[in-house]
Specification:
597 residues; 17 strands
Length: 597
């Protein structure tokens, strides 16, 4: 049944601007604090009428005074609730009256999804993907949501809304994403049924070009899906950086639920430099609380990153060695075979702003931080930001920039300006007692010879090693290493020295190898699955907090400023090569041997 403002008693304004109609015997009431009490009175009378109290009094012999007492109780309840309209730490309203939200005025009609909503199956979670027709949403976000749904990490009746500006139907969106959905290789029971069930829980909304009106429609649609029951909301903002603030601001005002928590996922990059990041953060925090914001970097959802704290703090053999006393250097390496970023996005941001600022520095923070007091996300973030603040600001003399040379015959994007770096090598130092003097070497590049993601922890030489003459002229061959590899094959490797079997005494450096694909007969989930599940669970330790953003920009600012002044030019390197030659000399300058394999 559809409800219009004419159904309500006099206390509602005759213009009807405070009533937004939806289906299924429900309505949404909008209004500012000045008119909310007046609206509550109308709501009370409407509720009493809908409950047929007068009819009940005749049928069951209720006295008129009983009806008046019921009205007085409702008056008292509404008055108490309206005076306690606060919010908790995640933007959750303490207002206890269902289906009444403070919203800007709207005459919009709510879009009704094609799947039925039953009162006993109201979802406890509703997820909106803003920018649902984009490549990221189609290739990563929806497949990750389905993987969680298939594995039982999402409610069976979860509500998922795709939101964009294209004129599509629910079926159009389902057709777009259906081809990207796959079931676990190691667990394919009822795969087709699960896909159909997931698609049936997915609907589409054309938000148009007015963000305010679009967000009001989105809120009304999500309220319809939720069926008037308590439910939490996640908003994934898969939108261009230039549209982020406008979308986020209108979402904050128009689309947040009052009957559960609201969490906002924001894609990188998180600003262009320290100043732009500061203003972006300030604008977001004027609309949301810090605990609501989840700045996502998909590279931080890799199993390698998740495993860092486990290896460090649950293994006695590693933690006592984790300092300058035993560790000689640490290398963090990320190389891509091809330039995978689009020219429109990557040009201007480059690899420093895209990968180094978030993924690389967050990896170093997890490697180098002190033990947190618990696994609580805020406790881990507190330790990460301490380390980031202790990293020396990068000097241009400790940085090598590069850019791959590509032609239109190469199957890569060549829309790069003359100063956009696609390769970054640098040496960082942390000024504290644990890491004083230990170089942290970074290598991140695109268009290189192979795809490789790993962390190499090199230990110091054995003092007075009596076997030093058995390693030949290169004593570095005797260096123990802990290698944490993500790509090409996820593994944990420990390089140790041992005797080669046979007569005589010949030493060899061998690797103790834990290869995940051999040890664990399970498919490794995509990083978006990890991170989306963390958002649902409220685990924010892999998402950058505002003070972490500031600390990271402070490290990189001197180099970024020199690039912007055209004082640093990237060194060209062959596409499919090993990167700039200058990086080899940088490693040697700090006494570290360059490692390729």
């Amino acid at each position: 049944m559809s409800v219009s403002f004419s159904n309500f008693p006099a206390p509602f304004p005759a213009t009807g601007k405070n009533i937004h109609t939806v289906t299924s015997d429900r309505f949404v009431l909008y209004g500012g604090s000045a008119t909310i009490c007046q609206s509550f009175c109308g709501l009370k009378l409407w509720l009493l009428d809908r409950l047929n109290l007068k009819h009940c009094s005749k049928k069951h012999g209720l006295s008129e005074s009983k009806i008046i007492k019921n009205q007085d109780k409702l008056d008292s309840h509404l008055k108490t609730s309206s005076s306690n309209d606060g919010r908790d730490s995640e933007g959750v309203s303490t207002l206890s009256v269902p289906n009444v939200t403070k919203r800007p005025t709207s005459k919009l009609q709510a879009h009704s999804p094609n799947f039925p909503v039953q009162s006993d199956q109201a979802p406890s979670l509703c997820i909106a993907v803003i920018g649902a027709t984009g490549e990221l949403a189609r290739r990563k976000i929806f497949p990750a949501l389905f993987a969680l749904y298939y594995s039982g990490f999402l409610p069976e009746n979860v509500g998922i809304v795709g939101y964009s500006r294209k004129n599509l139907t629910d079926e159009d969106l389902r057709s777009i994403i259906a081809s990207t959905l796959t079931c676990r290789i190691d667990h394919r029971e009822n795969c087709g049924d699960k896909i159909d069930a997931f698609l049936s829980r997915t609907c589409y909304l054309n938000g148009g070009y007015d963000n305010r009106e679009g967000m009001l429609k989105l809120s009304a649609l999500m309220e319809h899906i939720e069926g008037g029951f308590e439910a939490n909301r996640i908003f994934y903002l898969s939108v261009p950086q230039e549209a982020l603030l406008d979308v986020a601001s209108t979402l904050a005002i128009c689309a947040q639920t009052q009957k559960g928590w609201n969490r906002i996922i924001i894609e990188k990059p998180f600003g262009f430099d320290a100043l732009s990041s500061h203003w972006l953060t300030k604008a977001l925090l004027s609309k949301f609380q810090e605990k609501q914001l989840y700045r996502i970097d998909h590279l931080l959802g890799r199993n390698l990153i998740e495993n860092l704290t486990v290896l460090r703090f649950s293994n006695l053999i590693f933690e006592p060695l984790w300092s300058r006393t035993y560790i000689r250097s640490i290398q963090v390496i990320l190389s891509e075979e091809m330039g995978v970023q689009s020219g429109r996005y990557f040009d201007g941001y480059g690899i420093i702003r895209d990968i180094v600022h978030s993924h690389i520095l967050q990896t170093i923070a997890l490697l180098a931080m002190e033990p947190p007091i618990s696994l609580n996300g805020e406790d881990i973030r507190n330790e990460k930001v301490k380390v980031l603040r202790l990293i020396r600001r990068l000097e241009p003399s400790n940085v090598i920039l590069g850019q791959y040379k590509a032609t239109f015959d190469d199957k890569v994007d060549v829309k790069l300006n003359s100063l956009t770096p696609t390769y970054f090598a640098a040496v960082l130092y942390i000024d504290n007692a644990r890491w004083d003097g230990v170089p942290f070497l970074i290598k991140a590049g695109m268009g290189l010879i192979k795809h490789r993601v790993e962390i190499r922890i090199q230990f110091r030489h054995v003092p007075g090693n009596i076997y030093h003459d058995r390693f030949g002229h290169n004593i570095n061959l005797a260096t123990n290493e802990l290698i944490l590899r993500d790509v090409p094959d996820e593994a944990i490797l420990v390089r140790v020295n041992n005797k080669v079997p046979g007569l005589g005494l010949q030493l060899d450096a061998s690797e103790l190898n834990l290869l995940y694909k051999d040890k664990y007969n399970a498919e490794v989930p995509d990083s978006y699955e990890h991170l989306l599940l963390d958002v649902i669970d409220g685990d924010n330790h892999l998402f950058m907090r505002s003070d972490e953003l500031t600390a990271a920009w402070n490290i990189l600012n001197p180099v970024l400023q020199e690039i912007d002044k055209n004082n640093i030019a990237p060194e060209l390197y062959e596409l499919g090569g090993r990167g700039p030659v200058g990086a080899y000399y940088l490693w040697a300058k700090h006494g570290v041997q360059w490692t390729e394999d």
